[in-house]
Design brief:
The protein contains two helices and 56 strands. It is mostly beta strands. The strands form 17 sheets. The protein has a five-stranded antiparallel beta sheet, with no helix packed on it. Strand 31 and strand 32 form a beta hairpin.
């Protein structure tokens, strides 16, 4: 018997333990069930439409307690507009209540009420509806969407099944705040949802098809298409069955054109505006070019267009923006304009005092006077019909490197350039030598591309000989080689004469050792001597130089240290190599000093 009782006790204990194990192993209550999609009234599932929701239901998985401040939270995607808490309610069995509803953006919170026991048991099915008066506004973007539900006891949001907000949306405008407003010629994008899969889509602007059969609806009922906006109007998307959704109004941005698109200071141009806001009263359109006032135009009352003439202001050249601003509506539009800039070119741009400078340029007002200013020097000339001008002015003595300015007398437009004043220099090498010596002559700081004569002035006779002619290079320099002339006596100067005055350097003539041709040595008495005799000791014979026509001469050169008989027709002075010889009519004996 005892054994039987013991067995029964063991079995009872095992049963109790088994029951406890089952209870301990039971899973925790589930989260909120997946909420159902909202049921919309007819036509209220379109984008941007005010709609009522009904039959959005879900079941909670855990007890909610008023004393714990428990709540139910519904979150809708961004873009939904829920007007106020009074427009949405949650209900369950008659003995359950939710005391308060709050709305924050796209989040709705339902607080458990205190009526009855203030509890909402697990497994309760709740239904959310709107009141049908102040409706909720659907988002403005079509496509598939969901909402989520959670409770304070079940923090994981549970998303509803996907549902579609139907319609089309147009974008492409330059501003996210005005996506349907763009300049004429802009490619716009149409996104649609809620259409029949597989159907081709036409895009209509008003009643005109602007993009026929542009795309095919996908399996999810959506499509994307494009069209070029040319005029304002309503955009719709239509499939081959005639199905359309909402219409989207598109408008054109204000625009202007300017003609011509290039001009001089003071020139006129015509500005035409389109698609400006129609105002009850006339309004003033202010036009600027490059930020500088160019004139005003009056737009007639109730008109969206205008045309008027403006004047190109005194702006620098190059690409400029034309801006038209409506005084009442505030509309603005821009266009491109290229101003012909004022220029001043100096030729040469580097010169010495006394030089003549040519000042020329373009870009000034047609037929206006242009004043050239350089220090105290002013010169006025008239621009041509094309805005070009040209005049000359002289660099005064003491002129320094500085700015030359061209100013339009009427337009006040200006242009400037730098004039560089250089100091002319002259260098020779060597600075001493016999007649016939080659001398390197270098000039710098002269007026570029200018002709000069290099001169030799004999100190004794003041005779001036042009040694050579030179032309300066683009920076006002030259290099040349000259030969000291036979007529030189003791020496002289090598010189050039730029605009600012003569520059001369001394050259000392020394006795030469090289035999000199008779005609060169006696060139200072040419026409006055007829015969020259000398005795050549090396051959013990006389040599003769005879100027008579057809005469035979055996003497060709004069050698330093040799004696010569010279017959002249009158008293005269022979000069050569820095030496002079006084001769008398008839025969004269001289010792040649070179």
């Amino acid at each position: 018997m005892k054994t039987k009782h013991t067995l029964i006790s063991v079995l009872m204990i095992l049963a109790i333990v088994s029951t406890l194990c089952v209870v301990m192993a039971a899973p925790a209550a589930a989260d909120v069930s997946q909420p159902t999609v909202p049921t919309f009234a007819a036509g209220e599932d379109q984008i941007g439409t005010a709609s009522d929701w009904t039959a959005m239901t879900f079941t909670i998985g855990k007890l909610l307690d008023n004393t714990l401040g428990d709540v139910v939270i519904m979150t809708f995607p961004t873009g939904w507009a829920i007007t106020a808490a009074a427009n949405i309610a949650i209900s369950a069995d008659a003995d359950l209540n939710f005391a308060a509803t709050s709305v924050s953006g796209n989040i709705v919170t339902f607080a458990v009420g205190s009526a009855g026991d203030g509890l909402v048991p697990a497994g309760t099915t709740l239904t959310v509806t709107t009141d049908g008066t102040n409706k909720v506004t659907n988002p403005t973007t079509p496509g598939s969407t969901t909402y989520t539900v959670r409770t304070s006891q079940e923090p994981t949001p549970i998303a509803s099944a996907a549902f579609t907000i139907k319609g089309i949306k147009v974008t492409g405008g330059p501003s996210p705040l005005a996506p349907t407003t763009a300049a004429a010629g802009t490619t716009m994008t149409v996104v649609g949802a809620g259409y029949t899969p597989g159907q081709s889509i036409d895009i209509l602007l008003g009643t005109a098809v602007v993009a026929p059969n542009t795309t095919t609806v996908g399996a999810d009922g959506t499509f994307t298409a494009t069209f070029v906006q040319t005029i304002a109007g309503n955009i719709t998307a239509r499939d081959v069955t005639g199905l359309t959704r909402n219409a989207v109004a598109v408008s054109l941005l204000p625009s202007i054109t300017i003609s011509p698109t290039t001009g001089l200071v003071g020139a006129t141009a015509v500005v035409t505006g389109r698609n400006f806001t129609s105002t009850v009263a006339a309004e003033t359109i202010t036009v600027t070019i490059g930020g500088v006032a160019a004139g005003t135009i009056t737009k007639a009352a109730a008109s969206t267009t205008f045309t008027g003439t403006i004047t190109v202001p005194s702006t620098t050249g190059g690409a400029k923006t034309v801006l038209a601003t409506a005084g009442t509506s505030g509309d603005t539009a821009t266009a491109a304009f290229t101003g012909i800039g004022q220029t001043l070119t100096l030729s040469p741009s580097s010169a010495t005092a006394g030089a003549t400078i040519t000042a020329s340029g373009i870009g000034f007002k047609a037929l206006e006077y242009v004043t050239i200013t350089y220090g105290a020097v002013t010169k006025t000339t008239m621009a041509g019909a094309d805005g070009a001008y040209s005049t000359t002015f002289g660099v005064p003595t003491g002129g320094a490197t500085g700015i030359v300015t061209a100013t339009g007398v009427t337009s006040a437009a200006t242009a400037s350039a730098t004039l560089t004043i250089t100091t002319a220099t002259l260098a020779i090498s060597p600075s001493m030598g016999a007649v016939g010596t080659s001398v390197a002559v270098t000039g710098t700081g002269l007026t570029p591309l200018t002709n000069f004569s290099v001169l030799f002035t004999d100190t004794g006779t003041t005779m001036v000989t042009i040694l050579t002619a030179v032309t300066t290079n683009s920076i006002g320099g030259f290099n040349t080689t000259v030969t000291i002339p036979a007529a030189s006596t003791t020496g002289g100067t090598i010189s050039i004469t730029p605009a600012g005055g003569t520059i001369a350097l001394p050259f000392v003539v020394t006795a030469g050792t090289v035999p000199v041709a008779v005609s060169d040595g006696l060139s200072t008495i040419a026409g006055k001597f007829s015969i020259v005799w000398t005795f050549d000791g090396s051959i013990q014979d006389w040599k003769l130089y005879d100027t008579a026509a057809g005469a035979t001469s055996t003497l060709s050169t004069l050698t330093r240290g040799q004696g010569y008989y010279v017959k002249v027709s009158e008293n005269c002075t022979l000069a050569y190599g820095g030496n002079t010889y006084t001769l008398y009519t008839g025969w004269n004996l001289i010792g040649w000093l070179g």
